[in-house]
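Database export, one record per block. Field names are fixed; values are copied verbatim from the stored entry.
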Amino acid sequence: QVQLVESGGGLVQPGGSLRLSCAASGSIFGLNVMAWYRQAPGKQRELVAVISGSGTANYADSVKGRFTISRDNAKNTAALQMNNLKPEDTAVYYCNLKTPITGDNYWGQGTQVTVSS
């Protein structure tokens, strides 16, 4: 069983920065893909950023140039550095880990990010 624990959310003013962290623990087999999703009130959960085991990252158009996803394979952790935050970024952010070899998919509990003046 794999557990994901997220941290780093909070209240920040527009233009500010936050760094979200995700720590994975448990039985993780093979290569995995880690990602950050977010869900704003009344909206569907959307993919924000994804990073492969080799370090290749992709981003939603709305966050390109502002967010950076990273990972530490040895520690099974992922981070999302969020710069120049906008009110539209307000959402609950979720860490996700997928293990293609076994087909398992795991979610963190979510952490609230609020961007407001």
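Remark 1: The chain is about 0% helix and 55% strand.
Remark 2: The radius of gyration is 14 Å.
End of record.
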